[in-house]
Specification:
The complex is a heterodimer of chains A (278) and B (282).
Chain A lengths: L1 E5 L7 H12 L1 E6 L7 H5 L2 E15 L9 H5 L5 E4 L2 E4 L9 H5 L5 E16 L1 E9 L7 H8 L8 E4 L6 H7 L4 E6 L3 H16 L3 E9 L5 H9 L3 E6 L2 H8 L9 H19 L1
Parallel strand pairs in A: 1-8, 1-9, 2-7, 2-8, 9-10, 10-11
Antiparallel strand pairs in A: 3-6, 4-5, 6-7
Helix pairs in contact in A: 1-10, 5-6
Chain B lengths: L9 H9 L5 E5 L8 H4 L2 E9 L3 E4 L9 H5 L21 H5 L5 E4 L2 E10 L2 E8 L6 H18 L4 E5 L6 H7 L5 E5 L3 H16 L4 E5 L6 H13 L4 E4 L5 H7 L4 H4 L3 H18 L1
Parallel strand pairs in B: 1-6, 1-7, 8-9, 9-10
Antiparallel strand pairs in B: 2-5, 3-4, 5-6
Helix pairs in contact in B: 5-6
Classes of the chains: A alpha/beta (278), B alpha/beta (282).
């Protein structure tokens, strides 16, 4: 079973929910797909053992063959190539590696180089197989890193995916093929507004979903009212507590040595398992 | 306003600045999950359609099932049965090019809208991206252009941009060519980790950066750590904001914090603003 944790709004507690859930069920795979700002291992503290580079293919123009006809730059939908008199400029950060320039080149002048855009790291903590992706600073595209990370999924396991914030491509790439998506929100107007956007995304993708309310007690009851009206299950409420915020600030998962919370997350997992097997 | 980590308080601070700044235009560049309009309550003056990347469409009547498109697609956006997976298509046109019978057409997609609006504090540029659409970086650029035009037309000296979280494409679009980024962080290990990465991005693109520590009093050790880190890299900490329930209360009342209360949090915001003002005027 693959469970992803997403939110729309950033900073609502995705990583908190994902890491505490993993620590409570104690085995399976954990993938931190927030490759722009991966934080899960601050809490899980897996020892990294293997590192794979994430590479993309970037065109290189053979100046001996090129006659500067401009077909490659005309074709490129991403403006990653520009033909100027007697030169072709390649902008690697803009290239999506679609291969179009090679197809349209009448002189066969396009070769491919690889470029490193990030890495995927693997480690273990207790019985949890931990993976995260890290996008290099200054790189635009998170998708190739997320794709390579998701190839590590072994369907025989329970898999927990910590998704990035937002509602667009990196989120969709992260949560697609999930059996269930936990949407984490906070009971504030911003939380509610972005929860509605996230709900649209999971509905659009036909993924089963439920809501976890974090920092319960701040704000108002509008999130709960919305969930009731829309018949969206509220899976868990995590109260606004100073101890929880302090543990978070120090990078400590609050289920650590806390039997009661470990059990709560265990129940959350059982609830999801039941929903998925229906 | 950027942060790396989400939920550190970018929008709260942008909105508060809106109620202090005179002669400014406001731009919400977090087009994935835009929230600034919930506080600034813009009256939309003009709505413009936004078309992101094109998407492939296959005419099954013409298709001979040769599978060349399937074999050429680098995004796994065409299935073996020659169906397009719209969410995976990046609009590269390769399938259209390789199709021997012209069965593939690239069509515009209606990806969302950009808006030009008025608020009680001044003009605002913002946008809405439709569910599961791509190209948020491109839409961010549209919002930036709209804001720039507003500033020129209305003779405004300053554009205040509410940025998205992360370090990738939308963030880079939101900060390219700006005069200053204010990075909002908080004293948690996660936010510090993310601060280091977003400072790296600002440095990479040679954009001057200053830092604000929100909720500085929830972990004084970490606040000190951030202070020392910034000092080492010659980055100014221009403001420290306390943890305060008033932030949520103001949000519920659809007001900026500065409008809603004149307590400690608002004082700290005003102090930070005065601190920053000197830099724009330079």
């Amino acid at each position: 079973m693959i469970i992803s944790v997403a939110s729309g709004k950033g900073g609502t507690g995705k990583t908190t929910v994902a890491t505490n859930l993993a620590l409570s069920i104690k085995d399976g795979q954990f993938l931190d797909c927030d490759v722009e700002e991966p934080n899960a291992n601050i809490f899980l503290k897996a020892k990294i053992k293997d590192i794979d580079d994430v590479t993309v293919s970037i065109p290189e123009v053979d100046k001996k063959k090129c006659d500067y006809c401009g077909k490659c730059s005309d074709f490129c939908a991403y403006n990653a190539l520009a033909v100027v008199p007697k030169n072709v400029l390649v902008f690697p950060e803009l290239c999506h590696s679609c291969g179009g320039c090679e197809l349209v080149c009448p002189k066969n002048a396009i070769k491919w180089n690889t470029r490193i855009v990030g890495k995927v790291e693997h480690g273990t903590i207790n019985k949890i197989d931990f993976f995260h992706g890290i996008l290099n600073i200054g790189e635009m595209q998170a998708i190739p890193v997320i794709k390579q990370l998701k190839r590590k999924i072994d369907n025989k396991n329970n898999v927990i995916i910590d998704a990035p914030p937002g509602t667009t491509c990196p989120v969709i790439e992260s949560i697609k093929d999930s059996d269930y998506c936990i949407l984490v929100t906070e009971p504030t107007p911003f939380g509610l507004h972005d929860l509605k956007l996230a709900v649209e995304v999971v509905k659009h993708m036909y993924i089963l979903y439920g809501v976890v309310i974090n920092r319960d007690g701040i704000g108002n009851k509008d999130v709960e009212k919305y969930c009731k009206d829309q018949k969206i299950p509220i899976l868990l409420k995590i109260p606004e507590r100073k101890e929880i915020a302090q543990l978070y600030s120090k990078g400590i998962a609050f289920t650590n040595n806390n039997f009661e919370w470990t059990e709560m997350f265990g129940l959350l997992f059982n609830k999801i398992q039941e929903e998925v097997s229906k | 306003m950027i942060s790396g980590k989400g939920g550190t308080g970018k929008t709260t601070i942008t909105a508060a600045f809106a109620s202090i700044a005179k002669n400014a235009v406001f731009a919400d560049c977090d087009v994935d999950a835009a929230d600034l309009h919930l506080i600034l309550k813009p009256k939309v003056k003009k709505t413009l359609g936004f078309h992101g990347l094109k998407v492939a469409s296959i005419d099954k009547e013409l298709c001979t099932n040769c599978k060349r498109c399937y074999e050429s697609c680098k995004f796994d956006a065409i299935t073996k049965d020659i169906e397009i997976i719209i969410e995976s298509c990046e609009g590269c046109n390769v399938c259209e090019y390789v199709c021997p019978v012209d069965a593939v057409k690239m069509i515009e997609r209606d990806s969302g809208f950009s808006y030009i609006s008025d608020t009680r504090f001044g003009p605002m540029a913002h946008a809405m991206l439709k569910t599961a659409e791509e190209a948020s970086g491109k839409l961010v650029t549209v919002v930036r252009e709209n804001a720039k035009k507003l500033a020129e037309d209305k003779n405004k000296e300053l554009i205040i941009i509410d940025g998205p979280p992360g370090i990738g494409c939308p963030v880079i679009s939101a900060i390219s060519g700006v005069n200053l980024v204010l990075i909002v962080t908080e004293p948690t290990l996660s936010a510090i980790h993310d601060l280091e990465r977003i400072l790296g991005v600002a440095y990479h693109f040679k954009i001057p950066a200053v830092v604000c520590i929100n909720k500085y009093d929830i972990n004084m050790n970490n606040t000190e750590k951030i202070g020392n880190y910034c000092k080492n890299f010659n980055i100014d900490v221009v403001g420290k904001l306390p943890y305060d329930k008033v932030v949520t209360d103001a949000m519920i009342n659809e007001k900026t914090v500065v409008e809603f209360s004149n307590g400690n949090f608002s004082d700290a915001i005003i102090e930070m603003w005065n601190n920053l003002k000197g830099r724009f005027e330079k």
